[in-house]
Amino acid sequence: MIEIRFHGRGGQGAKIASRILGRSGFLSGLYAQDFALFGAERRGAPLASFTRLGREPIGERGYVETPGLAVVMDDSLLKEAPEQVFHGVFAHTPLFVNADPDQLAAHTKHLPPANYIFIDLSAIARQLIGSAFISAAAAAVAARSIPAIELQALSEAVKIEIAEFGLPVDIIEKNQAAARKAYAQAPIVPVSPAPTAAEILETAWQAVPYLGSAQFAGPTIRHRGSAALRETGNWRTERPEIELGKCKRCFLCYLYCPEAAMGLDAENFPHVDYDHCKGCMICFEECPTDAISRRLEA
Ligand code: SF4
Ligand code: SF4
Which residue ranges have their beta carbon within 6 Å of ligand 2? Predict the structure, then answer.
């Protein structure tokens, strides 16, 4: 499965870009999924949209955490919404940015590492459509690096998606021309594979300013299925301790623990995985025999 993320501002057409790409994949015989996350939902606000394509039915839902490729439709988002744009982006992740290629070095000097590709989609749209509507061009640069998508399918997808807005034929054809031009200009880049466990851990920590101090930080879950890699036990201020002599092996603590941090041994006595126990004390509250006590962490 290939996962693509588009970043744009409200009104730029990021959602339509993800729809065009999804439909291109569908018309090329792939399973496809696309949707958007609007946030503030007002014109100009940062938003993200997503496309998943695969040869098998796609059961995955939710945010694309680690895109195989991303398209940034407004270069100001690199600095104004970095927590969105660079979420799950690694040094090898292709990041297409709608900007003048001559500005690449100056623009990316202080930004996180990524495989930056600057391509002026706005110039293409202005020249061929007469506006800054870059959905078709944005979808096209992503489609270029997905071998299963045919140019004919891309062009047909642009036609269908733009027609849904009731726009006249000449505007549809201009958008198709913009898609073809962006497709021709875009380099073919290797779509990033799923990240390794080491890479996930590498980006596991994100400084969260707290009470004015940058020393406080919180572990973030960056990728589905990676929770076991995080030692979330460092959130804990209190720890549960079990007195096995009082335990009746009712399993309630095991069933109620929201972190699956309560395990059972061979004799069905509970034990705590302190690397992942976050100290919520639900087990303490639920234990019917008071076998669990709470202790402040040192
Ligand atoms: S304190 Fe919370 S997280 Fe820790 S073992 Fe008990 S229920 Fe689970
Ligand atoms: S809830 Fe209490 S009695 Fe029941 S298994 Fe857990 S520790 Fe034992």
Answer: 242, 247-253, 270, 286-287, 289, 291-292
User: pTM of this prediction?
Assistant: 0.65
Token duo for residue 141: 């640069």
pLDDT (tens digit per residue) in 273-285: 998 888 889 999 9
Q: Whose CA is nearest to atom 2 of ligand 2?
A: 287
Q: In this structure, what CATH number is given to the domain that contains residue 127?
A: 3.40.920.10
Considering the domain architecture, whether residues 57 and 164 belong to the same structural domain is answered as yes
Contact 68, 21 (CB under 8 A): no
Distance between CA atoms of 19 and 193, rounded to whole angstroms? 22
Nearest ligand (C-alpha, residue 292): 2
Task: State the residue range of the domain holding 247.
Answer: 231-296
Q: How many domains does the chain have?
A: 2
Indicate whether 67 belongs to any domain: yes
Per the domain annotation, does 208 fall within a domain? no
- More confident: 228 or 4: 4
Helix axes 121-128, 135-144, angle to 10 degrees: 130
Distance CA 70, CA 50 (A): 9
Distance between CA atoms of residues 274 and 277, nearest Å: 5
Q: Whose CA is nearest to atom 2 of ligand 1?
A: 280
